[in-house]
């Protein structure tokens, strides 16, 4: 009995001498969402009115095709160009390709002749009447195009062989009289001639 009492006293003594650790407390309160400083005006969202003015200014710059000062733009818009709008104009004032004439576009396509075509969407910011210039270059046989389903140009290529070669009327007549067989008959004729279908790689522009 005295042995049990002795062990009980030793246990109480060991518990009393152990180090006590406090339980960590997780703070579930609302975090402090206050910003350390104001948002720069160039990064602040613009309202619909400001976006409308910006759109008008960009179209105006495309139309006149020459540099404009802030004062010129203020006269055109009849409004004060604030810092936020001015910063957006400085961001958007450089197109991907600085194309200002038909000659500029043709020269760019010549440079890219070995690197593939040029997507029309990459020229949308240029200061030219893109639709008419492309049509003129096509009529002059200086460029080739891949068109969308609606007939609008999608990709432009420089035409390395712009000269139109004359074809005799007898060859034109033979060409018109040739009839392409249907797909089944065509495959049969190709197999009989030892020819295979060409696998075309789909390319995205």
UniProtKB/TrEMBL annotation:
It comes from the Eukaryota. GO terms for cellular component: transcription factor TFIIE complex. Residues 120-147 form a coiled coil. One of its GO terms (molecular function) is TFIIH-class transcription factor complex binding. Residues 100-159 form the TFA2 Winged helix domain. PANTHER family: TRANSCRIPTION INITIATION FACTOR IIE SUBUNIT BETA, TRANSCRIPTION INITIATION FACTOR IIE, BETA SUBUNIT. It comes from Smittium simulii. InterPro entries: TFA2_Winged_2, TFIIE-bsu. The keyword Nucleotidyltransferase does not apply. Keywords: Coiled coil. GO terms for biological process: transcription initiation at RNA polymerase II promoter. The keyword DNA repair does not apply. This is TFA2 Winged helix domain-containing protein.
